[in-house]
Amino acid sequence: MQDYITSALATLLIVADPIFLSAIFLGLTNGLSVKDRREVALRGSLIAFCILVAAGLGGARLLTLLGISLSAFRIAGGLLLLSAAAEMVFDRRGSRLQETAKTAVDIDHVKNIAAFPLAIPLMAGPGAITAMILLSGKAQGSYELLGALFAVAALVMLACYFCFLIAEQISKTMGITGRAVISRLLGIILAALAVQFIIDGVKAINTF
Question: How many Cβ atoms are within 10 Å of 99's Cβ, its own excluded?
Answer without folding.
Answer: 10
